[in-house]
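User: What would this chain look like folded?
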Amino acid sequence: MVGWKIAPSPRPYRQASDQRGHRRPGPPDVGLALAVTALELSDVFLVNAGEHHDALTVVLLLTAALPVVVWRRWPFMALQTTAAATIALAALHAAHIGLGPIAATYAVACWSGRPARLVAAGLLMVGVWLVPLLTSDAAAVPSNAALFGAAWILGALMRERRLTTCRRALTCRPTGSCRRR
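Assistant: Here's the prediction, encoded as C-alpha cells.
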C-alpha cells in the first residue's frame, strides 16, 4: 500500500472539515435548508393565507426546517429538533408540510452510526402515527409511512454506495486496475 494515492473527488465542490473530521455546513446544506424553509413558509403564508398565524407558528416552522443546515454533522440532533417542532405544529393544528423531518430522516440513515439509526427507526415508527393522530387526519398515515420509508431507504442506499466506493478505492491500484480477492 505504500505509494498508492486515492484520486481526489471529481466534484467541483468539496465539503470542508474541521480538525476532528466533522463536516462543516457548506453551500449545498445551506441551500437545502433555505429551500425547505421557503417551502414550509410559502405553504403557510400563500396556500393557507386565510388562517391566522401567530409568532409561535412561525418559530416552530423555522425550527422544523432550519436544522437541516447541520444534517451532515449532527444528523440525529437535526432529526430530533425537526421532529419535535413538527409534533408541536401538529398539536397546534397549524398547517405544515413536514419536509425538515423527512430530510433529517435521510441524513440519519445516510450518516449516523448503527445505535443512532436504531433509535431513530423506533422514534419514526411512533412519529409517523402520532402526527396524523394529533391533526385528526388518520388517512395521512400511509403517505407519511411511504415518505419517511423512502427517505430512510434512499439514505441507507447512499450509505452503502459510499462504503462500497471507499472499499473499492482501497483495493484499486493507481493505474485503475483492481486486485482480485
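Residues 141-171 form the longest helix (31 residues). If you want, I can go into more detail on any region.
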